[in-house]
Each structure stands twice: as C-alpha cells, then as structure tokens.
Amino acid sequence: MNTILDSQNFNSKPIKRTHVMAKPIGAACNIDCTYCYYLSKQDLLEYKQGCTPTLQGDSLETYIRTYIESHNAPEIIFSWQGGEPTLLGLDYFKNVVALQDKYRPEGVIIKNDLQTNGILLNDEWCEFLAQHDFLVGLSIDGPEMLHNAHRTNRAGRGTYKQVMKAVDLIHKHNVSFATLTCVNNLTSKNPIEVYRFLRDVVKSTQIQFIPIVEQKTFRNEAPQSDGQSWQAEKQVKQGDKRLIPGNANSVVESFCVSDLGWGNFLIAVFDEWVKNDIGNVFVQYFEANLASWIGESSQLCTLNPVCGKGLAMEPNGDLYACDHYVYPEYKVGNIHHDKLEEVSYGDKQQDFGHAKIETLTSECQRCEYVFACYGECPKNRFIKNANGEANHNYLCAGWKKYFAHIDQSLARIARVYGYPVKFGRYSDERMMQTIGKNQRYII
Ligand code: SF4
Ligand code: SF4
C-alpha cells in the first residue's frame, strides 16, 4: 500500500509510486540523543559488534535502479535517513546523484530528501544540496536549553551550537529545508518558546513535530507479528499513574511526552499559528488536519486510515514494513532478492497497512474525530482504555482535546479558502466516517 496507483496515466501507463526510506548507514550516528529509537537497532538486527554496514557499490546502484524501476511517475523522490546519512561523506551523495542521472527515464524529475542533525554540514555540503535541490530535514528541538537537554553528543554535551551553525549555512546557500522537532517531556511544556524559536530564529517555514513516545521495553521488544499490536496482558489502563513519564514504575521512558502534554502543546502552537502565521508558516500537522476536515487524505501516515507511507531499508537491502517497525518480525523483503514493487503490493505489506484500521478499538470506531485520527500510529497503541479495551492509543486523551479545540477554527479556515467542510461538528453537512472491517483503501 505504499505504492500509489491512480487513474492518471504517465507515458500511457497508470501512474505508480513506491516510497522507501533508505538508511544507507543504518543506525550509525555521530551524536547520541537520549530518545533515539534507532540506535538500538544495531543490536536488534544483529550487526556484528563494531561493524558499520553501509549501502555501497553495486548494492547502492541496485537500489537506485530498482527504486526508479518501481515508479511510473513524472517525479521520483528518494529519502535518505539514518542514523546520520552525512557520515557517508559528500562524495557518496555525489555518486548517488550521478547514479540517479544514469537511470533516470526521460522526462522524469528526481528529487532527494535528506534528514540530518546538521553537525557535518559545511559550505561544500550546502552548495551541493542547493545545486541538486535536496530538501533537508533538519533536526532541532528548540532554544539552547531545550535542544541540549536530549540532543547530545557521545560525551553528553549539547549540540545546539553546531546545529545553529548548520542553520546559518543553510540560509547562506538557500538550501530548501524543513525542521523536525521532537515533542518530549521538556519541549512539550514550552510550546510557544519552541514555536517562536523555530519561526523567528531558525526562520523555518516548514515545521514538523513528532511526539516522542516509547515504552521502556522499546529497545528489544517487538509488537506481535499479527496486526502490529502489543501484548494485551501487559497493557496499563488509561489514567494509571504508570502511564505518566518520569513517575515511579512508569511503563514509558521519562523523556516521553504525556498524552495531555501532547494535546496541550499542539493547542498552544495552533493558537499562535492561527493568530499570526496562516499562509506563511506550514505546520505539517495543521496542514494534515485541514485536509481531513475537508475530506481529503492527509499527508501523514499516522493520521490516515492505513499505514504504509513508506518501507524502511537497511544497508544490506532488507526491507521493513515501516521505519517504526524495523524488527525482524516485520521484515518484508530484500532489494537483492525481491522486486520492490512486489514487496510493496505484497500480502504481508498490505496486511500490515490495513491492520491499522482493522484493529481500531470500539472507542476509536465511535469517536467523532476518527476521520482525522484513525487511532494514530499503531506503535503508540499500548494502553487499555477506560472500558478496559486493549490496544488503545497512549496519546488519545491529548488528541481528543486538541481535535475539539481546533474543530471550529479549521472549519472557518477551510471556508475562507473556499473548501467545503466535510467533517467535524461545524461541517456543512454532518458526515460520519464509516469504519468497516472489509473496507480496503488504495493510497
Ligand atoms: S506504523 Fe505508524 S509510522 Fe508506520 S506507517 Fe503506520 S502510522 Fe505510519
Ligand atoms: S482521538 Fe482517541 S478515540 Fe478518537 S480516533 Fe484518535 S485515538 Fe481513537
């Protein structure tokens, strides 16, 4: 389902797209953020001690060729993530661009996204990124104290000064960029400071937030292989103090955002954005929410009915159902033995994607905001709700508070821009999303 088919044609054939998040250096990184969910993959995926596998040589070429072949579209987007992909060096990415050019079908535009902590960026890097129109995703958590609290180097020192140097270089060379900010136990308590910093100091016009939610067992325990879910018998009921980050016996890591912490953060940022920044600053969640209110599909997999915005690929070519499901149980293929397209369309990946909607709790199915949430990311469905139903979303209370808060404003914004309001309490015509087990979506 991470392959999109639609009725439009390209080169007289139906358009198709596959999306892979490539991790060409696996989990290897030059810093050591406290909340990183990926560093521990080095042990989980049984990489040999001290070995840093990389996607190189023929393997890199195979990947670029097969990725291009899995598309029939006017534009192909490659995504590079880590770990820290810039550790591979600039020549690596010069080679990437040359290989893309070698296999690029006529009339097709190829673009690249690169997620980075910014530490290694210099003038030469930024000239290259600007010249080849890379979209850089820069990880930055806010003003110095907030950023340095969790984004530290191996010696435990904060990386703020280095990332701000990268911000200056990015602006100097006009590199396209978006910021990615983790909403954790600390940033969640300072929403306005974080948002104004991103807007006024970093001058980011594309702002992405990500809620930090990890169970204490996240480093070595995988969700069950049937339907993405966590073991029901271990789940704690909504309202239990063990769901509060930092509490004694908490089942979540202390760096996590709490459920209401998440909702309150989004509410505060939304109010500031509505007052001052509509049309000038793009906050990924608000864009996604607006799409849901007008009945369009949102750009965020977490808020869509089915999963599968993209497979994740490790340096040895192993493909996983999702970046957040890089566990042996969720391996769906390998680029050296399987056709990328077939993996994308394959039963295993389809079932993975549809499990998101098919395993919604009855509370979600009846929720008035299910059209905008769909139970959010299954990775975060590890609590029992007030009725004792397992596999409910940890962030639910925050989501509900936030959706209720933005409902009327979003309806107003949609109307100002001339869109019909299809969902929510203020819709033109009240529509209810029907959730059925046998519904199958093509995304
Ligand atoms: S598991 Fe979460 S992150 Fe992965 S595709 Fe599904 S919603 Fe998106
Ligand atoms: S807000 Fe809560 S109940 Fe509603 S769909 Fe999201 S997780 Fe489910």
UniProtKB/TrEMBL annotation:
Domain Radical SAM core residue range list: 12-240
Claim: Lipid metabolism is one of the keywords in the record: no
Pfam families named in the record: Radical_SAM, SPASM
Cofactor(s) demanded: [4Fe-4S] cluster
Keywords, ordered alphabetically: 4Fe-4S, Iron, Iron-sulfur, Metal-binding, S-adenosyl-L-methionine
UniProt keyword annotation of Repressor present: no
Family recorded in the similarity comment: Belongs to the radical SAM superfamily. Anaerobic sulfatase-maturating enzyme family.
Protein name per its UniProtKB record: Anaerobic sulfatase maturase
Upper classification of the organism: Bacteria, Pseudomonadati, Pseudomonadota, Gammaproteobacteria, Vibrionales
